Each structure stands twice: as C-alpha cells, then as structure tokens.
C-alpha cells in the first residue's frame, strides 16, 4: 500500500506542483482545500471561490481527490483575535506566522491524520532535515522565495510529519513543471498580503474592527505637525499614508512613522529614511519558540531577520532566558517593529525566534 499524504491545495502553482511531485513519487495523494475566512467573503477582494475552482482543476489533472474543509472558526479564535489584540495594543503582528503554527500545521495536520495520513505536505519554500531523531527546519534552495521565516514556530512533532516537496526547486522550475504538466495555474500570480484581507484597503478593513482614536503627530523635538487617526493604523517605518503636508521651514525629505507613545496616544514622525530613530542596534523579543525545543547556544555564529523581506543580519545573543532574548546586531537595523518576529538562523538552519517587544 502506498503511503497516504494529504497536501494543502491552495489553488496556487506552488501547492499544485507539490501535489504533482508526490503523486509522481508514488504516494497516495489527497488534496485538502482550507477555507479559513467567511466574513464578507466576496469576489471583489477575496479570491476563495476562484482558488477553489483552480484547486479542483489541478486535482482533476493530477488525478487525486480534493476535500474542502472549513477552519474559519478555528482561524477566528486562534489567529484573528490575536491579530486584532496586537493592533489594538499598538503593535504590528504577522498573522501568517500564527496561521502556520495554529491552522496549517495543527488543525490541518489533525484533520489529515483523521483521514488516515501520517504526514502532510505543503507548497512552502523550506526544507526539513532529520538527524538522530531530531528535525531541523532549513531554508529553501530558492533564497528569494524562502519561507522558513513564516514557519519558525513549528515544533518537532509538527516537523516530523511534514514534507516540503519544493525545498530544492527554484520558482522558475516550479512554473515550468506546472506548464509541462498542463496545470492551468502555471502562470497564476502569487497571492500577496494577509489572506483574510486580500487586496482590499488595509485601513478600511481594520476600521471595521478597531475604532479610530485620533491624536497628535509630533517631531522628536515635540513640534505638532499633524493628527493621526489612531496608533493601530500605523506601523514603524511607514511612509505612505502618514498625512504630513508641506511644513513651513521643513526639508522636502519624506516623513516616516518612528515611534508610538501608547500612554499619550502620540505618534512620533521623522524625516529621512536614515533618521536615527529608525535605526536600532538591539532588540528584545518574547513569546519565544525554538524549533529544537530548546534555546540556541549563545556562542553560535548567528544571524537574524526582523522582517521577512530582509537580508540576514549578523547578530549575537546578549541575554536569554525562558521568556525573552536580547539581540545585538553588528550593524544597525532599519524600522525594527514591535509585533513582528525576530527569527534566528545558524547558516541554513532556522532555529526559531520570538515577537519583537
């Protein structure tokens, strides 16, 4: 009997090729389409219907079953409520990280095991390596698409049951394989942004759930240069939508959100991409999660990302305990943002990380 593997089919090219490769390798493949969001699920901004149609077409071409499962209740409870709470507290969370840990590799894994599978697979660009009964999370071969940052909260039990068929492939190869196999999604545009927001205006969406709470926008010197609509609606390093007009006596340099004073409901804004308030040599992170189950050795040669679209930065652990770490970087990091994740690496191995405080 061939091993049954359940593949998360999203309707995109990556998961389609992951399923195709496993089918070709001789596994009994079952596709699973996850519906994680129901509120205002319309075609204007949300692509769920189109994605399901594409996923069904892929399953038909490959010759596998496709099951649709609704995790909307779990998503709302485990991911969306945390997302709102973080924004309400003035931080900028990354819901994709929580979605992977709580939905795609927990609720999905549990459902797959109920279907008789021992392992699941996804179209993520990352790798898993086993050695002496322990599992390591690795970067993907295509570094420009590597998604280990989003997967850093996965634990040993989860990694022991997951396959990443695209680990060694470049995106161009994935599209070529899909085209040659006659998969209609071979040229489909990659999805961007947060899944439950889609392409809709972010502020408009957030304002449905969080009230506006206007307050002053000030320069570091205390000069009021405008009014913000609520600290929840801004992120550190934000340039667009700040709303500071031409200020008499000020330079023409762009304005950036630099600091939030929650207590006084004040947003500090600065001019210039390299303003000192946008640069940090250190950060503290909490809500830690380590892939191996234990904290890394402080003596290791480490690097870290403080946001997904960022090159690794050499760093070292200044302090570490069970609840928090303090990282020091060799070079200043731009717009280190509370609520985002600081993810540590040793070479190609993703060690885990925590939420920036």
**Structural class assignment:** alpha/beta
Helix count, DSSP H or I runs of 4 or more residues: 7
Per CATH, the class of the largest domain reads Alpha Beta
Strand order of the main beta sheet, please?
Answer: 12-15-14-13-16-17
Cα Rg: 22 Å
Per CATH, the architecture of the largest domain is 3-Layer(aba) Sandwich
Question: In terms of per-residue confidence, which ranges show pLDDT below 50 for 5 or more consecutive residues?
Answer: none
CATH topology of the largest domain: the name is Rossmann fold
Helical residues, percent: 10-25%
CATH superfamily of the largest domain: HUPs
Keywords for this entry:
single chain, 357 residues, alpha/beta, Rossmann fold, SH3 type barrels, Elongation Factor Tu (Ef-tu), domain 3, 6-stranded antiparallel beta barrel, 23% helix, globular
Description:
There is one protein chain. By secondary structure, this protein is an alpha/beta fold. It has 3 domains: 4-180, HUPs (Rossmann fold, 3-Layer(aba) Sandwich); 211-273, SH3 type barrels, CATH 2.30.30; 277-356, Elongation Factor Tu (Ef-tu), domain 3 (Beta Barrel). Helices cover 23% and strands 29% of the residues. It is built from 7 helices and 17 strands. Strands 12-15-14-13-16-17 form a 6-stranded antiparallel β-barrel. Strands 3-2-1-4-7 form a 5-stranded parallel sheet, sandwiched between helices. The protein has a 4-stranded mixed sheet with strand order 9-8-11-10, with no helix packed on it. Strand 13 and strand 14 (313-320) form a beta hairpin. The longest helix is centred in the N-terminal third of the chain and has 20 residues, at 95-114. It is globular and about 75 Å long. The mean pLDDT is 93.
């Amino acid at each position: 009997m061939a091993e049954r593997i359940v593949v998360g089919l999203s309707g995109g090219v990556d998961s389609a090729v992951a399923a195709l490769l496993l089918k070709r390798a001789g596994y009994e493949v079952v596709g699973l389409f996850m519906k994680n969001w129901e509120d205002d699920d319309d075609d204007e901004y949300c692509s769920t219907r189109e994605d399901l149609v594409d996923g069904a077409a892929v399953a038909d071409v490959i010759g596998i079953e496709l099951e649709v499962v609704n995790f909307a209740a779990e998503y709302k409870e485990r991911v969306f409520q945390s997302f709102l709470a973080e924004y309400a507290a003035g931080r900028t969370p990354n819901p994709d990280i929580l979605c992977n840990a709580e939905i795609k590799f927990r609720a999905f894994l549990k459902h797959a095991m109920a279907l008789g599978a021992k392992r699941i697979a996804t179209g993520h660009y990352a790798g898993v390596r086993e050695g002496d009964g322990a599992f390591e999370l690795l970067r993907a071969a295509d570094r420009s698409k590597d998604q280990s940052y989003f997967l850093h909260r996965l634990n040993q039990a989860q990694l022991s049951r997951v396959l990443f068929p695209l680990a060694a492939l470049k995106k161009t190869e994935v599209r070529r394989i899909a085209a040659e196999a006659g998969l209609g999604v071979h040229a489909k545009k990659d999805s961007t942004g947060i899944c439950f927001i889609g392409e809709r205006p972010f502020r408009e969406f957030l304002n449905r759930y969080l009230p506006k709470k206007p307050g002053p926008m000030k320069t570091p010197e205390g000069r009021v240069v405008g009014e913000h609509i609520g600290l929840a609606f801004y992120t550190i390093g934000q340039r667009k939508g700040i709303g500071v007009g031409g200020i008499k006596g000020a330079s023409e340099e762009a304005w950036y959100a630099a600091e939030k004073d929650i207590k006084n409901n004040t947003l500090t804004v600065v001019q210039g991409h390299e303003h000192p308030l946008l640069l940090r040599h250190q950060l503290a992170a909490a809500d830690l999660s380590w892939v191996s189950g234990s904290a890394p050795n402080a003596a290791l040669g480490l690097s870290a990302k403080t946001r997904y679209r960022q090159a690794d930065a050499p760093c070292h652990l200044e302090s570490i305990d069970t609840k928090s770490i303090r990282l020091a970087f060799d070079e200043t990091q731009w717009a280190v943002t509370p609520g985002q994740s600081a993810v540590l690496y040793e070479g190609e191995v993703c060690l885990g990380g925590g939420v920036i405080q």
